[in-house]
Specification:
Helices cover 40% and strands 19% of the residues. It is of the alpha/beta class. The protein folds into 2 domains: 2-156, Rossmann fold, CATH 3.40.50.970; 176-311, 3-Layer(aba) Sandwich (Rossmann fold). The longest helix is centred in the C-terminal third of the chain and has 20 residues, at 292-311. The two termini are 38 Å apart.
Length: 317
Amino acid sequence: MRDTYLKMLYGLAKRDSEVVSLVSDNGLIVYDDFRRDFPERYYNFGIAEENMVAAAAGMASCGKIPFAYTISAFIAYRAYEFLRDDVCFQNLNVKLVGIGSGITYSTLGPSHHTTEDIGLLRSLPNLTVFSPATRAEVGWMMEEAYRIKGPVYIRLSNNKEEYYDTNTEFLIGKPAIIQPGSNLTIMVTGTIINEVMKAVRELENDGISVEVVSVHTLKPLDTKYIAKLIQNAECLVMVEEHNVIGGLYSAVAEVMAKENIMVPNLAIGLPDMFAVDYGQLDAVRRANGLDGKSIYEKIRNFVDKVSYGKSNNNKYK
């Protein structure tokens, strides 16, 4: 996903001389092409994310289109006041790109995890919040971020899997259907999609037809479209590598409350806690119940309870 971002950024810079790249002492090697061909438009601020965001605001006020890139936790938390006051309050054309969403930096622990950023940044006026699941979504988001005249946040992670064909159309605020289904709707955001798809294969082996929906835009949301998806669902699951408070689950629950929709639902994410354990990403996901097996078991238990409650006869064997 990072490579897709860098490729798109290079293309935008080649197309438009106002596009500039800002980093805070990361990505030096992977930015080699950009630094070589656009040296006057590449700025390394060192470990000073607040300064980077403030400078990006200044550049935007002068007509530049800055893409400010660093670890998600540092751009969302450390530089929050600058993001709020200098960028969003002024409604400036700054693009904020965070790498390492969720628990991607699994060996470094909660100080480097980004599991509250959606809740924190979704509340900021004027800010568009993107959370891609695949490279196809990243490519589309970069074009949209360039087109939008205002602040944008893109939370990146690592994912080499792809679930879309080349004809998929993406629209801001409108979730994308990865696959149709009739018994269960799973709404997911970010690269936890890979674990969700492992769970989906097991659910389908159980005879459960699963609709999978990628919520690639957390703000703005097409509430009417989401309401339609929810209304048509027998039961609904939201999965995120994020605190369930303030993230995808909260966003969808707001739509349900606003549209007065009642449907059996389950939130899978971090239940008002920081992620536990350290190690490889797969191991940390297992420790926090966010691996494919754990997601499958949680959903299967939920579906069984919903089915039993409706008929006292579990139709899924």
